[in-house]
Design brief:
2 domains; binds zinc ion; 152 residues; single chain; elongated; two-stranded antiparallel ribbon
């Protein structure tokens, strides 16, 4: 008995047990499918959430850059620097320009004046260009040039 109702020869009365068995088999495989999908979805969400909780932050007092800071779950912004115990960690903007107008692959992280309630434009301490909210990347050809230079 393989439990598949469709295998019952035609003309023969349907065996109730076979129907129940095949229904059980379908329900079981559905349950397994749902379980696998749910488990995968949960896993994917957890992984994405983990990745999104690590950010580059800059200490507004010491200038320290922490490239992969784990954002605390229940903590007000700005976050506390574990080294100093002071709430001076801010999310920076990234500047990918060099002084001589080329692109670089490792950005300079800059906290905007706006974020710190300071007046005036924010200038990158490295290249002197203005840094803005969602600071734009240099053009693609300059980035490609930087990537080529890095490979040499
Ligand atoms: Zn810069």
């Amino acid at each position: 008995m393989n439990g598949i109702a469709a295998d019952v020869p035609q003309g023969q009365t349907l065996d109730r047990r076979k129907v129940i068995l095949s229904a059980t088999a379908v329900a079981l495989s559905l349950a397994v499918l749902v379980f696998v999908v749910l488990k995968y979805t949960l896993w994917a969400e957890t992984t994405a959430a983990d990745a999104s909780r690590n950010r580059a932050v800059v200490d507004s007092e010491t200038g320290e850059v922490i490239l992969s800071f784990r954002i605390p779950e229940k903590s007000a912004y700005p976050w506390e620097n574990p080294k100093t115990g002071r709430k001076t960690l801010y999310l920076p903007e990234s500047c990918y320009w060099t002084k001589d107008g080329k692109a670089k692959l490792e950005p300079t992280y800059v906290i905007l004046n706006l974020v710190l309630d300071k007046p005036g434009k924010t200038l990158c301490p490295d290249c002197g260009r203005e840094v803005v909210v969602h600071n734009p990347m240099p053009p693609a050809n300059l980035l490609q040039e930087a990537a080529r230079a890095a490979r040499k």
